[in-house]
Amino acid sequence: MNRPYPRATNTRDTASNTTTTRLDCAKQIVTTMVSDLMLQSSANEVCVIVLKTRETSHHKLAAAGCDLDEEQMDASVPFPNLTDLTNHGVTKPSADLLRKIQNVQSVSEQEASALRGDVCDGLILAADALYERTHGKKYQRQIVILTDAEHDIVVENSQTLLVVDALRAMDCRLQVVGFDFLLSASYEQPMEASSLSLNTNAPKPAKTEPDTVSTKRLKKSTDYDSSETEDEDGFATCTQKTELDRNDPGQILYSTKEDREQLLSSLAEKTGGDVMAVSTLRQILQVDKGRSLKKATKRKIELRIAPGIVLPVRSLKMLSKETTLGMKKTAVIGTNKSDTYSTAGNDKAEMDDVRNVYMFVDPDHKDDVVEPQETIKAVRYGSDLIPMSSYDYEGLKSSANYIPYLEILGYTSRAAIPLVALIGPPYALSGSDSRKACAAISALAKSLEQLDRVAICTYMKTKGGDPILGGLFPLSEPQFKHAARLMFLQLPFAGDMKQLGVVRSEVRFGAPGTKPK
C-alpha cells in the first residue's frame, strides 16, 4: 500500500508535483464511505479493520482473555496483527473514528511480508463482528475490502468455504476495491451452494441443496490446528495454522498477484458482490459515487397532471436540514451542596431521569383528584369538545390507505417566479418502475425546459394536512442533454409575500463640500 500515485503529470509544476500512496487513497475512500453513512442515517453502523498492523486490538481479545501488554504475541492471541479502529465491533460511527482512519500508518514492505493478519483473517473477523451485532435483526449487510493484493495469502479451503457459507446465510455482499487490479467484475446473484469451491485442484465439498444454506458461525480457535469443532451453541469453529503445511491438500498458497486477484473475485462471485479495479485517482474518487438509492428511501406519491391522468411516481428529498442534538433533563443527587458534582471518589453523583407527573382535578371540587382511568380524550371542534374513545381516536389519525399526491393547477412563465420566492427543501420526482410514468415525466420536464415554463401545483403530504403550494421545475443533470426529471420547490402564498422596496431619492449630491441640489 506504499506505492505512490502522481498527482501532476507536468514535471515543471513543482508546486503541485506531489504524490499520494495507495494507503492515502484507501483512507480517503473509507472516510468518504463512513461520512456518507453518518449523513444518511443515525442508525447506520460500521466496523473498520486494518490488516497487517504491528499491534493487535479488536473485540475478540477481551473474549479470549489475552494480555495486550506482552511484547511478543504468542499462539493464544486470536486474529493477530489486526486492528479494529472501533474496538467494539460493529457500532455507530463517530468523528473520533474518522480521525483514527486518517492517523493510520503503513508498515514497510519487508515487515508486512513477515506479519500475519491477511485478507482472509480480516474477512473472518468482519463476518464474526457482523454476526454478533446483526444476528436475528433486519440489517443491510456489506463487507468492503480495500487491498492491493501484494502479499502472499495462505487459505484453508474448508475454512474459507465456511466464511462464504456464513456470509450467504446473512445475505451479506462482498465488495472488493482492488488497487491496480487487471479486471473488474459484478455479480448480481450469489453462486449456487452446490458450486462452491476455491480451485479445481482442491477436493470439492460435499454436495448440498442450493436452497439450503448453513447458518454456522465463524470463530478462530486459540490453538492453531487444522481441525473443525463445534462449540456448545452448535456453531462451527474455524482454526488456522501458523505456517503453510505443504502436505495438507486443504491449504492453498496464493503466491502471485494474479492468483490473489482471482481468489478475491471468486469470493465476490460466491456472495453476489463485485470487484472494482482502480488504477487512477479519478477511478478511486468514483468508488463511492453514483450509488443507486434503495426504494425504501423514495416515497410513493401520485402525480395528477390533468383530470383523468394520474401517474404513480416516487419523491426523494434532495436536501435535508441538520438539527442539533436535543438536551436531556437529568436530576443530579450529590453528597455536597455545591453546584458542581464530582464523578469519582466519595462525591460520586447519582443521576436519574426527570419524569413529568400530571394530576387531574374536578373543576367543581378542587380537592378531588380524578384518576387516569376516569378520563377520556376529546377533539376540539370549534368551541366544543367532542369525547372520543381510544379506538376512534387512532382511527381518526390512521392514514394507512392514504397516498400523498401532487396536483398540477396550471403553468406560468419562469420569469414570473423570483428566486427569493423559492423556499423549503427540494424534492426530485422520477417515474420509478413505471415506464409510462418515466415517459410522462421526461416529456413534461423537456417541455418545461424548452418553453421556459413552471408548473404550479399543490402537494398534500399527509391526510388532513394543509396543502403545500409549489412549483415543478425541470431538473437539469450533467449526464443528460435535456431534463429528464422534475424538481418540486415550495412557493409562498400571496398573503405571505412581502414586497420590500426602496423609495428613490430625488436629491442629487455633487462634489464633496458642495450643497445637495
Automatic annotation (TrEMBL):
This is Ku domain-containing protein. The lineage of its organism: Eukaryota, Sar, Stramenopiles, Ochrophyta, Bacillariophyta. Residues 367-508 form the Ku domain. It is found in: Nucleus. GO terms for cellular component: Ku70:Ku80 complex. Keywords: ATP-binding, DNA damage, DNA recombination, DNA repair, DNA-binding, Helicase, Hydrolase, Nucleotide-binding, Nucleus. One of its GO terms (biological process) is DNA recombination. GO terms for molecular function: ATP binding; double-stranded DNA binding; helicase activity; hydrolase activity; telomeric DNA binding. Gene3D superfamilies: 2.40.290.10, von Willebrand factor, type A domain. Residues 225-234 have a biased composition (Acidic residues). The keyword Mitochondrion does not apply. Residues 194-250 are annotated as: Disordered.
